[in-house]
């Protein structure tokens, strides 16, 4: 059973950067479609950025409009991790960030759209707080 583990959350001021990492000890984790989701107080969980598996070469990525141009998602196969580099942070980026993974044929965009949330393997989340 895949169990993602998030790290790297914390506090930042507007305009600063943070990097989140999602790791898994499972050897087949490269084959999963992985994404970062966030949930602010009183709001539903939303997809921020998702990435398809890298086992076969080109990797498709999806970004929500609110983070496009500021966040970058990437995979590090040596660490079996999926990282989210968050630049130019804004207060509205605050929330609990969850890593979620699903097995293909899920795609980056469908994973981030939470079309089948019951199939997603979730981490426990990491808090990100952006304030002046």
Which terms summarize this structure?
132 residues, globular, seven-stranded mixed β-sheet, 1 helix, 4% helix, four-stranded antiparallel β-sheet, mainly beta
Helices, strands, pairings?
Layout: E1 5-7, E2 10-12, E3 18-23, E4 33-39, E5 46-51, E6 61-63, E7 71-76, E8 81-86, E9 95-102, H1 108-112, E10 121-122, E11 126-130
Parallel strand pairs: 2-11
Antiparallel strand pairs: 1-3, 3-8, 4-5, 4-9, 5-6, 7-8, 9-10, 9-11
Helix content: under 10%
As a whole number of angstroms, the C-alpha radius of gyration is 14 Å
- The end-to-end distance, rounded to whole angstroms, is 40 Å
Summarize model confidence as the mean pLDDT.
92
**Number of helices in the DSSP assignment:** 1
Order of helices and strands: EEEEEEEEEHEE
* Outline type: globular
By DSSP, the count of extended strands is 11
Give unreliable regions as ranges.
Answer: none
Largest sheet: 7 strands, mixed
């Amino acid at each position: 059973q895949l169990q993602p583990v998030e790290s790297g959350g914390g506090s930042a001021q507007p305009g600063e950067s943070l990097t989140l990492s999602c790791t898994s000890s499972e050897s087949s984790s490269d084959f999963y479609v992985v994404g970062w989701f966030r949930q602010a107080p009183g709001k539903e969980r939303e997809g921020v950025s998702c990435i398809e598996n890298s086992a076969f070469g080109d990797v498709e990525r999806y970004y929500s409009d609110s983070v496009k141009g500021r966040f970058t998602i990437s995979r590090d196969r040596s660490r079996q991790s999926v990282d989210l580099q968050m630049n130019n942070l804004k207060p509205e980026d605050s929330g609990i960030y969850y890593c979620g993974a699903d097995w293909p044929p899920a795609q980056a965009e469908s994973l981030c759209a939470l079309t089948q949330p019951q199939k997603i393997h979730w981490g426990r989340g990491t808090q990100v707080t952006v304030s002046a």
